[in-house]
Design brief:
With 106 residues, the chain is α+β, with helices and mostly antiparallel strands. It has helices spanning 2-6, 12-16, 24-28, 80-83, and strands spanning 18-21, 32-37, 40-52, 58-63. It has a 4-stranded antiparallel β-sheet. Strand 3 and strand 4 form a beta hairpin. It starts with a helix and ends in a 23-residue tail after the last helix.
Length: 106
């Protein structure tokens, strides 16, 4: 679906925010949603909270800002190894990973 973002028919946020089947306690422990396609980061959003859908067990993230975080460190980075590559074998696209180097808001 990333082609829809590139063609500007949908925003990155529209494509990425939900409705995902996930573990809410684990998702709540993750401050960021890292959006990637084919192992390359397309954008990073700080998560304000998760909203439950009408379908039980599915959620969408509500970002702090409607725009992805700015900066080269948040875009076009190869994260294939972090997320298991394109052929990781899982049908669930949600991954919970620890990201080192997070800076506190100032």
């Amino acid at each position: 679906r990333f082609a829809e973002v590139e063609s500007r028919t949908h925003s990155l946020l529209d494509i990425a925010k939900g409705w995902w089947k996930l573990s809410l306690p684990r998702a709540n422990a993750c401050p960021y949603a890292i959006i990637h396609a084919r192992g390359i980061v397309r954008g990073v959003f700080r998560v304000a909270h998760w909203r439950e859908s009408d379908v039980k067990g599915r959620y969408e993230f509500v970002p702090v800002s409607m725009q992805p975080l700015e900066g080269d460190q948040f875009r076009n980075r190869n994260v294939a190894r972090m997320f298991g590559g394109e052929r990781a074998g899982s049908q669930n696209p949600i991954r919970y990973v620890k990201v080192s180097g997070e800076q506190a808001d100032g």
